[in-house]
Amino acid sequence: MLDPLVIKVLSLAFAVLLAAAAWNKLTDRARFRGIVAAYKVLPEMLVAPVAWLVAGLEASLTIAWALGWNLFVTAFATAGLLAVYTFAIALNLWRGRTYIDCGCGFGSTGGGQQLSNRLLPRNGLLILLALAAALPLTARELLLIDYVGLGGACLALALIYAGANQLLLNAQAINSWRKARAGSGES
Q1: Whole-number pLDDT of residue 186
Q2: Where does the chain have alpha helices with state H?
Q3: Which residues fall within 8 angstroms of residue 172, CB to CB, at 6 or more apart?
Q4: Residue-level pLDDT at 109
């Protein structure tokens, strides 16, 4: 059983995460369609409808998390969506297609965040956290101090997530520099 404060933190964190993801997809639909097509897991005729479906699902899940609507369904739907993303990433890594944009960079300029093995444990952790929100709650009222803690915890999680994403981008940049240096014959 989980404390209701933990569920509130998870709910708010997933609402913010999915809102940013949906916003990214809806404000640059052409780029996101290109990313979906680059994964090469769908026939071309399904790329545009699936891109709309994904953005709509993320927006719907944002609302569901924010309103606390049926946490069991919301948690499993979020975990399922993340599992689909993780499968598509793993499949393309297995194919050796690491050069494509993962589609998870928040407004990053340039090529975005490319696929890497590092995305798999990150997504696995997000799936586990989403499923944790489906656990039963202990019965207790939240106090004022809990809401202060909620704000602090959400801020800390946002900073940790942003920092982790920046580390992934840095690793990508370092790897590209190493490849360029190795290709030039410098020692």
Answers
A1: 57
A2: 4-27, 29-39, 44-67, 71-94, 119-132, 144-184
A3: 113, 114, 116
A4: 46
